[in-house]
Design a protein that fits this description.
The chain is 30% helix and 19% strand. It has 145 residues and is α+β, with helices and mostly antiparallel strands. The termini are far apart. The chain binds 2'-deoxyuridine and zinc ion.
């Protein structure tokens, strides 16, 4: 069977690429304080992949998570429509989700995100932002009656 048949629309390949970009981003993490590297990679609606890592600061509260670093980069590069994000850290024995702040920041750009929680070996669990942040506050809630 040809690869085109195995991977209709190239989708599984795109997930593999997303997962591998988030693992690569984790290797770039600047985390001298926590020594807890995190990587994220966002798939845009037009098929681009933008990655991010956590960037810590000596003033600890100024640390920016990997997911939010990726969002900031994506917006600067002109993207505001997203379909999926892969996130990873160094934990091997369970799937770890984004922190609450990152869930809220993702929600700013819609609730319709697929989220791939990725282990260091590249295996992943597919979930969604709606599942991770039910009953969310979103931009629509700012609309006055
Ligand atoms: O969703 C999360 C949660 C934590 N971290 C980072 C922040 C900090 O540098 C380190 C430990 O909390 O992990 C992320 O990048 N993303
Ligand atoms: Zn976070």
């Amino acid at each position: 069977m040809s690869p085109a048949v195995l991977a209709p629309l190239g989708k599984p390949d795109k997930v593999q690429e997303l997962v591998s970009k988030c693992l690569q981003a984790r290797d770039m993490a600047y985390c001298p304080y926590s020594r807890f590297p995190v990587g994220a990679a966002i798939l845009t609606a037009d098929g681009a992949i933008i990655s991010g890592c956590n960037v810590e600061n000596a003033s600890y509260g100024l640390t920016v998570c990997a997911e939010r670093t990726a969002i900031q980069r994506a917006v600067v590069e002109g993207h505001t429509q997203f379909t999926a994000i892969a996130v990873t850290c160094d934990i091997k024995d369970r799937f770890v989700g984004p922190c609450g702040a990152c869930r809220q920041v993702l929600m700013e750009f819609g609730s319709d995100w697929t989220v791939y929680l990725t282990k260091p070996d590249g295996s992943y669990k597919k979930t969604s932002l709606n599942e991770l942040l039910p009953l969310a506050f979103s931009p629509a809630d700012l609309m006055k009656n």
